[in-house]
Specification:
52% strand; 120 residues; seven-stranded mixed sheet; four-stranded antiparallel sheet; mainly beta
């Protein structure tokens, strides 16, 4: 059974940083697109960053220049480094595993999420 477990969320003040982790079990992430999404209360789920199996990355406009997605295939782990956090970044953050090496917009598995709260 495949399981994605996020961690690293918390409550921080604006301008601070957090590093989220997503550990996969039950299958290797090595050959798959992976992504981070977030959803704040009353809003739709938003894709924050994605990374194809071979390294290319994409970011939402709100994440560009502040967030960095990375992966350690040997540890079967996806990361999201978030710097200069803003109150608008407050949300539940989820990792997702795609259906292939490239990011097609289809997601095979989701984690349970980790909460990020940014206060002024």
């Amino acid at each position: 059974q495949v399981h994605l477990a996020e961690s690293g969320g918390g409550s921080v003040q604006a301008g601070e940083s957090l590093r989220l982790s997503c550990v996969a079990s039950g299958m290797s992430i090595r050959y798959y697109c992976m992504a981070w999404f977030r959803q704040s209360s009353g809003e739709e789920r938003e894709e924050v960053a994605s990374m194809v199996a071979y390294g290319n990355t994409q970011y939402s406009d709100s994440a560009k220049g502040r967030f960095t997605i990375s992966r350690d295939n040997n540890k079967n782990t996806l990361y999201l480094e978030m710097n200069n956090l803003k109150p608008d970044d407050t949300a539940m953050y989820y990792c997702a595993l795609g259906t292939g090496a490239y990011c097609s917009g289809s997601w095979r598995y989701w984690g349970q999420g980790t909460q990020v709260t940014v206060s002024i």
